[in-house]
Specification:
Elements (H helix, E strand, L loop, with lengths): L13 H26 L8 E5 L5 H9 L5 E6 L2 H10 L6 E4 L12 E7 L8 H11 E12 L6 H12 L18 H11 L3 E13 L2 H11 L1 H9 L4 H16 L4 E13 L1
Parallel strand pairs: 1-2, 1-4, 2-3, 4-5
Antiparallel strand pairs: 5-7, 6-7
Helix pairs in contact: 1-2, 1-3, 4-6, 5-9, 7-8, 7-9
Length: about 270
């Protein structure tokens, strides 16, 4: 998951939700970091991999292509709808798909050489427990990689989208809408890892650029998929078309149009057991 606008879609059909999520937010936000994470894998040291919060398989594909053909990859998520999309897209690859909660991993101690989680831990209720589970299932010397989003203001397209949504809501957005950027503090991440037992750590802020074919397409993706706008649909449904026009203009003015260039920022954290 990502910033507030990158949260799970609220469309009525879960399958359509996951597909829409992958088509818009997957390419705009997740694909660039999927590539970055794969670069940090040492395939020579990997025999068994666990991916947590695999979503629609953006990172999964790069992991599978990067590690040895003989290595085993288990890709998991708490959302069966997301996994269904991933399975369909990557049916040609050797991947073991499993429906799993990161806070309770159904594996023995010291089972994996690598545990990866991209943009998932922000949404986990008990983060110390989830980190302890990742540590437990890693073998001695095993590698732990995960990504979390930087502050919302450092992801300007999503920041602009949320600001637009706030203009149409009389009440503040619920605190849960800030969850996607709730792990943007490097010191908090370091403390979590150290308290878990990890001693060798490396945390880096990685700024990249992504693109949308146009500001209009981006505005449509945010408004149709962002949970901010779900609240507006409930309270002021007649304003949605107006918002799309206004948001398109704001995004084009700030980030350009056809294509719209999008600066994105996230933290990539690594630790070794």
């Amino acid at each position: 998951m990502a910033d507030t606008s990158m949260k799970t879609f609220s469309n009525a059909n879960p399958g359509e939700t996951a597909t829409h999520y992958d088509q818009f937010f997957g390419s705009l936000y997740f694909e660039p970091y999927a590539i970055e994470v794969a670069k940090r894998i040492d395939p020579a040291r990997i025999g068994v991999v666990l991916e947590i919060a695999a979503g629609t398989g953006r990172v999964t594909r790069h992991i599978r292509e990067f590690i040895s053909p003989n290595a085993r990859l288990i890709a998991s998520d708490i959302s069966e709808e997301m996994l269904a999309v991933a399975k369909k897209k990557l049916s040609h690859l050797d991947i073991d798909w499993q429906h799993i909660d990161a806070q309770q991993l159904p594996f023995s101690d010291n089972s994996f050489d690598l545990v990866i989680c991209c943009f998932g831990y922000m949404f986990v209720a008990d983060k110390p427990k989830a980190f302890a589970e990742a540590y437990r299932v890693l073998r001695q010397g095993g590698h732990f990689i995960f990504t979390t989003w930087d502050k919302l203001e450092n992801n300007p397209a999503s920041f602009t989208s949320q600001c637009m949504a706030k203009q149409y809501l009389e009440e503040p957005l619920p605190a849960s809408y800030d969850l996607p950027t709730s792990m943007s503090d490097e010191n908090v991440i370091r403390s979590l890892l150290q308290d878990t037992g990890f001693s060798k750590l490396f945390i880096e802020k990685v700024k990249l650029f992504s693109a949308s074919p146009s500001a209009k397409e981006a505005a449509l993706g945010f408004v149709e998929g962002g949970s901010d706008y779900d609240e507006i649909r409930k309270r002021k449904p007649g304003s949605i078309d107006e918002i799309k026009i206004k948001l398109e203009k704001e995004l084009a003015d700030q980030l350009g149009d056809e294509p719209m260039t999008v600066p994105i920022s996230a933290l990539i954290s690594q630790a070794w057991k």
